[in-house]
């Protein structure tokens, strides 16, 4: 067959690698929903198990390098995500980056705590209210991670769940009601934790009702990835975070 053609670039805006949890039911769908045209997401899954406990979260560290190595070998990605907020708190962002970069050397890495911290700083937010789906034990570790980033955590409340599938099944109306109850009047912003929650779908509604910025795990991950890739595509429908001009974003 004598057909001449040039190969097309199917992800001209950038390639994002996602290490998702084996039990995650939401991240890929949620991230792709937010990502602008031209940016594509490529996923591999790390072994983990419910219930979501600190011990189980830390146990997945041994499989992260293997999962990261399975993302477009020979081509590579422009940025890597570890897609679990509570897992980041349990394992630590620096250790996650080390484990990922064994397989993806030199590739910038982000995680929900790093991304949310950058997003909150972009709003000059210091006093934060936090809503999670987690148990009190997991909440305590997540709160400490944000305090280590320099934030004043006014309060943190959770639904008391320890199963990823149940977290994704939380009705949007329930998340909305809880967010309105949890957000302290003195908070500069509300953070809704967990990549398994579909909370990005209600960011704009909550910002209108609360009159303050709302940051969620997956929304912040997309924003941070675009920042790391220097992609200034405009994203609409997912909150004030994407309304900031690219030049105003915090440099990584």
Give your account of this protein's structure.
There is one protein chain. This protein has helices at residues 27-34, 54-59, 64-69, 85-91, 93-103, 112-122, 136-148, 164-168, 172-182, 203-210, 217-229, and strands spanning 14-21, 39-46, 79-82, 109-110, 127-132, 152-158, 189-192, 214-216. The protein is an alpha/beta fold and 252 residues long. It folds into two domains: 14-111 and 219-234, 3-Layer(aba) Sandwich (Rossmann fold), CATH 3.40.50.12500; 113-216, 3-Layer(aba) Sandwich (Rossmann fold). The strands form two sheets. A four-stranded parallel β-sheet has the order 2-1-3-4, with helices on both faces. A four-stranded parallel β-sheet has the order 6-5-7-8, with helices on both faces. Helix 1 crosses helix 11. Residues 246-252 have low confidence and may be disordered.
């Amino acid at each position: 067959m004598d057909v001449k053609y040039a190969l097309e670039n199917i992800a001209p805006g950038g390639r994002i690698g996602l290490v998702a949890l084996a039990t995650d039911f939401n991240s890929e769908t949620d991230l792709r929903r937010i990502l602008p045209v031209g940016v594509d997401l490529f996923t591999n899954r790390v072994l983990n198990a419910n219930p979501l406990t600190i011990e189980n979260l830390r146990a997945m560290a041994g499989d992260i390098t293997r999962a990261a190595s399975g993302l477009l070998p020979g081509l590579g990605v422009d940025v890597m995500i570890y897609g679990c907020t509570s897992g980041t708190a349990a394992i630590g962002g620096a250790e996650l980056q080390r484990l990922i970069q064994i397989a993806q050397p030199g590739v910038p890495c982000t995680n929900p705590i790093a991304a949310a911290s950058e997003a909150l700083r972009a709003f000059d937010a210091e006093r934060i209210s936090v809503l999670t789906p987690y148990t009190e034990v997991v909440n305590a570790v997540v709160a400490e991670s944000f305090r280590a980033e320099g934030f004043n955590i006014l309060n943190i409340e959770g639904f008391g769940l320890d199963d990823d599938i149940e977290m994704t099944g939380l009705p949007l109306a329930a998340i909305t009601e809880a967010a309105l109850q949890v957000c302290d009047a003195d908070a500069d912003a509300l953070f809704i934790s967990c990549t398994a929650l579909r909370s990005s779908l209600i960011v704009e509604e909550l910002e209108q009702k609360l009159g303050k910025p709302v940051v969620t795990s997956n929304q912040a991950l997309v924003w941070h990835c675009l920042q790391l890739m220097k992609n200034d595509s405009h994203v609409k429908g997912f909150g004030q975070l994407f309304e900031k001009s690219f030049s105003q974003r915090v440099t990584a």
